[in-house]
Each structure stands twice: as C-alpha cells, then as structure tokens.
Write a structure and sequence with these properties.
By secondary structure, this protein is α+β, with helices and mostly antiparallel strands. The protein is 38% helix and 20% strand. It has 13 helices and 13 strands. The strands form three sheets. Strands 5-6-4-7-8 form a five-stranded antiparallel sheet, sandwiched between helices. It has a five-stranded mixed beta barrel with strand order 9-10-11-13-12.
Amino acid sequence: MHRPMDEPADGATPSAVRPHPAEPPGLRSDGPAEAAGTLPDPAQVDPAVLAALLARHGWRRRGGAAGRYSRWTPPGASAPTGSGTSLLVPGTGAFPDSEDLLGEALTALARSAAPSARDILVSLAVPSDEIRWWREAPEPAAGIGAASWTGAERLHGAARQILLAGALAVRGRAGYHGARHRRRALAALDGVLVGPAPGGRDLTAFVPVETGRPVAVRLHHALHATREAVDYQRATGGMEAFDSAVAAGVSRELTEAVVALVRGSEGAGIALEWAPAAGTPDGCPARPEPVEFSPGDLPALRRAGTRYLRDEPAVPVRITGAVVRMRRSGPKGAGIVRLRVLAGAEVPHVRLELDEEAYRIAGHAHLVGLPVRVEGRLESRGGFRRLTRASQVVPVQVDDAERDRLMKSLQENVDYFEEACTGE
C-alpha cells in the first residue's frame, strides 16, 4: 500500500494538528533580562538615546539642571514628590557621576510599574526599530478595557503575518510569494522580540537594527503603498495602483495580513519608530506617519489579493532535489514524485508528475543515494509547490556527506521506496 504524498515519513505530527507553540516563530516575548542577560550596562547606554526613548513612550520631563541632567516621570504621574518613580538622566556621559546616574535610572526602570518601562529597557538592551499594531474593537461586557481572547489572538497572528510579508519582500518583489523564500524570511525574524500592551489591544515588536532593519524599512514603504493603492481604488474603482505597489513590497501576503488585522474591528493601524541609537534609514522620514485601515478598506484589499494570486506568472526553473515521496496507481506508467529541493528554487519541496521512464530514473537515483536534476515551470497555483512540464530528469553526483544523508533517509523508509519503485 502506498503512503499518501503528504504523510510525514518520520512519523512526525502533521502540520494540521501540530501543537501550537507558546509563541509563533519570529515573535518572542522575552523580558529585558532574558534579552540582554542582565540590565543594560550603564557604561554602554547613551544618555541621549535613553532620553529619546523616554519621550517616545510618554514620560514627562520635569526640569533638572540645564546642561547637566533631566528629571523624568512616568506617563500620567503628577509632579515628583518623595515617592513614586523619578529618573535622573545625565545630559551626557562625560560627567564623573554619569554612569552612576544611568545605573540608578536603569534600576528604577526595572522596578517601575509603568508598562512602558519594559519596552524602554528592551530597546536599550537590543537597539531596535519598534513596530506597533493596534485594533479598535468594541468594548467587551462591563467595559473593563480588556480585549477579547479572539481579538488578542487575531492581533498577534496578524502582526506576525505582516512581519513575514515584510521579510518576504526583502528577499524578492512579487505579487504572490507562496512558499518561495519562506525559510529565509522566517529566519530573518528570529531575533524579533514582542511586548504586548495592557488590555491586549496593542502589540509592539522590537526589530533588531543589526539583523532586521531591512524588514522594517521595507514594511514602511509597503504599508504606505498599500494605503495609497486602497485610496486610489476606492476613489476611482481602478486596481492599477496595486500593480505598481509591488515594487514597494506589497503582495498578497501583505494584503491578507492587513485584512486579518482589520477584520472584526472598528479600525486598525500600524506605527513605526526608528531606533534612536541607529538614526533614520535613508529614504525614510524621521517620524513616519502611522498607517490606518478601516473595515471599508477590506473589499479593495481582498480584490488585490485575488488579483496578485491570479496574475503571478509561473517561473521556469532547473531544480536539483532529493526524492522523498513516490506514488503511482500501478506497476507501470506515469507517477507522482515529491522532491526536497537542494538548489534551483527558494521552496522547501516540489511535487511533479513524471512519465514512466523519468519515474524509473528518479526511483533508481534515490535507491543509490543520489538526487536528480529536472527542468520545468514552478506554478503559482498551490503556492509554487508544483512543477509542471517536467523534463530532462537526470541523476546528479553529490559530495559524500550529502550522499550519506540521502542514504540514511532511504534506510529509514526502505520498505516504502521498494513498494513505490516496483509498483507492488
């Protein structure tokens, strides 16, 4: 009996029923201590950066000695008295007591009950661009200011999709990415930290400048291009603006993510702030305007997503891959083969139909531990996971280490491949 094409060979839980992780890939909720090991080193903190972060998060400057230090209190706090959080921040790091004052300020932040204190510490520990999402949803029963469970999960999921769409756009511009570039795009989000705001209506992602600034910059351009394209469509009925917006990073993945963010709300938005320590990237405003969407934008966004999916062309490719699945209805004739892609396309696996001779070549290549090379067209239907018009199927020589890995895979599934190749 042949195994279904999508059945895992190693007995792993299929993705459809895989346990949901505590945090989705690309969004980690580590606190400041986990992010940096300890509090940021006062000797490495620029007082100007700390002051800029305090102002960004609504802390109030309450005077101080001009040119020497400034005093800051949390949002909503009255003028400082003998109690409560009050930070003294030196004007520069050149004074003898600057490091001591910074250390005391960081300790006070760590002990502060102000929700923004944690975000400031994260930004100091890992210089990051901040991306904030929010959803305006109806108040739940009793009007206690908390978001519903479904709304909070939707916010988190949509934020992850928007980040992934930005990372995909960095890898390549396309109206529809499908499975292409997905592994590298997810890897680019590994260092991102997430800090939910109280109430579950806001979510802030800290995107490290060192590894993630290209994603933040691409998202800035893509979100504003999406807003402009929606405005154009609603004003004129035309979809042409979405075609040109692809160059800015707009894609089906992004439009679907924005739909997920807005759906079920009264409106939603995304705001971006650059890391003070890194400055403003080229071609971007110092203080980007937030981008907001409403339920009235959903029809245009959905139409754009459908258009991107329909119009993205097939891609001619020459793929080298290891055979991981084989299936045909009888002992002879054409069959279906699944390859783990080693080179030639930015997708993890492809499925293709081979004639009897090519199917036999693929089976024999696998039995001796060799991948195959095949030419064809990578179709957008199915997410660029299907190769059509397959031809020129030939075994490919590989180094010993890769051949050993392929042979180990064969040994783990030898009974299945004997059945598949013989048709029994």
